[in-house]
Description:
about 180 residues
Amino acid sequence: MSSTDQPQTDLIRRHLEYLRFYPNSVEAHYNLGLAYLQNNQMEEALAEFQKSLQLRPTMVEALINMGGIYFRQGNLDQCIEANQKALEISPHSFQALCNLAFSFLQKGMWEQAIVYARAALEINPESALVHHHLAIALHKLQRNQEAMDHLQRAEELGFKPDPQVRESIERGLSL
């Protein structure tokens, strides 16, 4: 579906107008991508993020947003590729590390999920969501005590896990 098939917000119209005068503005393409993303126009958002990357290949934010769109679309391999490119540019990108941890978790690639979750926690040890994702990956590898430690830390930080996750880890501890 093209941008002409969807209603345009005032924000989208303003960015399109700006681009008429400044077609090579990296920020305008990126911001238009964000506006499309906010309006749930994924293909248009992807196209604008790609244009911003053509103009500035080191734009980490565009890669991370592209990865997020790919994730929503179920294209986990493309999500991983976009976030790995972001890490090549910015090795300490918390968001890229989190996205990779969650993508590998979704793919059932537990060891990789653990590597990226641990790296994300080195940057932000207070991320409840990352502790939760790490707990799940550890549990899948039957490292249940470590999983419980991270699940408890996630809860301390305000995360409310599914009770079945807790029960499953507890069962693993009692084996």
